Amino acid sequence: MNALPGSAPKLTFESVQVRAVSVPFRRPIISKVGEYTHWPFILIDVRTKEGITGRSYLEPYLQKSAKPLASIIEGMAESMKGKVLAPLDAYRDAMQTQHLNGREGMTLIAISGLDMAIWDALAKAAGLPLTVLLGGTTGKLRAYNTNGLWLIPFDRLAREAAELVAEGGFKAIKMRLGRAMLKDDIAAIAEVRRAVGENVQLMCDFNQGLAFGDALRRLHGLDDQGLVWFEEPIVYDNYEGCAQLARELRTPLQIGENIYGPREFYKAVKAGAADLYMPDLMRIGGVTGWMRAAAIAGAAGLPLSSHLYPIVSAQLLRVSESADWLEWSDWAEPILAEPFRATDGFVTVNDKPGSGVEWNEEGVKRFAL
């Protein structure tokens, strides 16, 4: 573990393996964007001639997205064969090939998956955790539990809230809002508070479920509830509407999980679209895109949290200037070799080389598509 950043031996891209799995939820998603009993993952293994394998995964939401995404990833990998494994070069070259087809959506998602696997391979070759390869240190991060509290019946809210706190000694949990009436949202918050008390912080997510006019009324009506943030109340790319909400509300506005790439991230920041940001590794551009977005957030003094991918996001938050909260979920646990657990509301990035992604092949086989 004495290697210095940048001291990894040269690696050469040889091949890629792409697999898809569908993992059942312990607590199915019931939200404004749909209901899900299973969650798809795309598993990416980048193999090098030197025998190092870099690994990453994507969470494409829809099972039907797995096949076309795998095809895009494999196509991109063809152009990388025989080249030195250099993530910044690979990211640049892949983005340039998309100038005619667009640099968002599935193309950027595919780039993100390859980028994360390449960084993992480099960190393994250096014998360093990814966060150390990037110039940081291992250690703790505060986390909140996002594993439940969807738009479920009221009589389940209190029990589930208590369960979320107990899963890792969490001091913060997230619930979903946007029920039929404002009074229903207020009642749901009260149920959760009754179960966990006033010392547990509550985030809330609307999953883009409100029209702008509804959001104006609803969020002003919830502005005295002491919530940590209002997340994605309206469609993600309405930066002007988000900016108006951010200006008018006392409760901070959180967006970012649906922003594609650091350039679009910059546009959102420039527009004053939110008080807080939470990039998603699949959409922001993997490790490379995250680091560029994190630099923008840091320069602007905007708190940066993560969206999903907790085991990799933790590595990157450790080297992000304005790091705020890690979103913790256990959705990928059945396919990962080691669970990424929380204790007393914190997760810990350890000293193992790489990004932390290794497969539980038994679980992969069990849930294969």
Provide a descriptive summary of the structure in words:
- Helices cover 38% and strands 19% of the residues.
- With 369 residues, it is of the alpha/beta class.
- It has two domains: 13-127, Enolase-like, N-terminal domain (Enolase-like, domain 1), CATH 3.30.390.10; 133-366, Alpha-Beta Barrel (TIM Barrel).
- Strand 5, helix 6 (182-196) and strand 6 (201-205) form a beta-alpha-beta unit.
SS field, number of helical segments: 13
Task: Please give the number of β-strands.
Answer: 11
Q: Tell me which CATH architecture of the largest domain applies here.
A: Alpha-Beta Barrel
Structural domain tally: 2
Globally, the shape reads globular
What is the class of the largest domain in the CATH system?
Alpha Beta
CATH superfamily of the largest domain: Enolase-like C-terminal domain
What is the percent of helical residues?
Answer: 25-40%
What percentage of amino acids are in beta strands?
A: 15-25%
- Rg (CA only): 20 Å
Structural class: alpha/beta
Biggest sheet, in brief? 5 strands, parallel
Helices and strands, in N-to-C order? EEEHHHHEHEHEHEHEHEHHHEEH
Mean pLDDT equals 95
Low-confidence stretches: 1-6
Distance between the termini: 38 Å
